[in-house]
């Protein structure tokens, strides 16, 4: 069932019968291990044994999450699962802090994103940074392939070479800062930030190369801070 569900592309494109069978199967496994949790822990002879039980329960949850990508809103399923797994990881170290790196889209508070779900789970405890630039290069896949291993990655220039007029990046470039952190926390209500509250061109590259690297986005409310690096270099893959 798993092979059939994922044979077309990285995320099953629609909730067809093979996806539903797979999802139902993983849910039965998940419910079974959950129901046996107390019995498993009662048999644990050490902290390491208890940790194995905890990991088994979490892995059963992960498999169910992956089977749910074929639902009608796979992006929201993916982001809610990422948030749930971060909250689970934080619960394993009470009092600890975490730093989560992801694409701006995923960390933002836009509805249906990981950031919005984390804010709901950990109200008032999440600080969100958007990362942006103005020129340079980035590493991305040159073409789409359903097989991640078959994708070819290389360096591409940010397009256009100069940030569009009216973008936040263009203002920061004019200010002459090579690196800057902009505090956006008062921007949703401050009269001085009305300009920022309008949708403006915002650098938005991801895993695929793009002919035009900007999309319209209003930053206040979606992010707490904007981290600006004027000139970027492409990431280098590990050997």
As residue ranges, the low-confidence spans are none
Distance between the termini: 33 Å
Main beta-sheet strand count, sense and barrel state: 4 strands, mixed
Strand fraction equals 15-25%
Number of strands: 6
Multimeric organization: single chain
Q: Considering DSSP H and I runs of 4 or more, what fraction of the residues is helical?
A: 25-40%
| Class based on secondary structure composition and strand pairing | alpha+beta
Count of helix runs: 8
Q: Numbering strands along the chain, what is their spatial order in the largest sheet?
A: 2-1-6-3
The average pLDDT is 89
The Cα radius of gyration reads 21 Å
Shape: globular
> Which H/E pattern describes the elements?
HHHHHHHEEHEEEE
Give the SSE map:
Layout: H1 2-5, H2 17-35, H3 37-43, H4 47-67, H5 74-91, H6 104-107, H7 114-121, E1 129-141, E2 153-157, H8 168-174, E3 179-183, E4 200-203, E5 214-217, E6 225-232
Parallel strand pairs: 1-6
Antiparallel strand pairs: 1-2, 3-6, 4-5
Helix pairs in contact: 2-4, 3-4, 4-5, 5-7
Task: Characterise this structure.
- The chain has helices spanning 2-5, 17-35, 37-43, 47-67, 74-91, 104-107, 114-121, 168-174; strands at residues 129-141, 153-157, 179-183, 200-203, 214-217, 225-232.
- The protein is of the alpha+beta class and 239 residues long.
- Strands 2-1-6-3 form a four-stranded mixed sheet. It has a two-stranded antiparallel ribbon with strand order 4-5.
- The longest helix is centred in the first third of the chain and has 21 residues, at 47-67.
- The two termini are 33 Å apart.
């Amino acid at each position: 069932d798993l092979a059939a569900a994922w044979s077309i592309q990285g995320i099953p494109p629609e909730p067809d019968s093979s996806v539903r069978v797979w999802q139902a199967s993983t849910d039965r496994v998940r419910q079974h291990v959950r129901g046996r949790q107390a019995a498993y822990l009662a048999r644990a002879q050490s902290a390491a044994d208890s940790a194995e039980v905890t990991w088994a329960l979490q892995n059963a949850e992960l498999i169910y999450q992956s089977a749910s990508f074929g639902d009608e809103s796979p992006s929201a399923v993916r982001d809610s699962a990422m948030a749930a797994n971060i909250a689970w990881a934080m619960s394993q170290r009470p009092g600890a802090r975490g730093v989560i790196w992801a694409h701006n889209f995923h960390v933002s508070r836009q509805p249906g994103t990981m950031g919005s779900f984390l804010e709901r789970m950990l109200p008032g405890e999440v600080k969100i940074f958007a990362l942006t630039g103005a020129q340079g290069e980035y590493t991305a896949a040159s073409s789409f392939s359903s097989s991640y291993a078959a994708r070819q990655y290389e360096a591409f220039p940010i397009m256009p070479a100069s940030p569009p007029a009216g973008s936040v990046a263009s203002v920061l470039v004019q200010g002459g800062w090579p690196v800057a952190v902009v505090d956006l926390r008062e921007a949703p209500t401050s009269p001085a930030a009305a300009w920022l509250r309008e949708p403006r061109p915002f650098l938005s590259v991801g895993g695929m190369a793009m002919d035009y690297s900007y999309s319209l986005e209003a930053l206040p409310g979606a992010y707490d801070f904007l981290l600006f690096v004027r000139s970027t270099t492409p990431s280098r893959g590990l050997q």
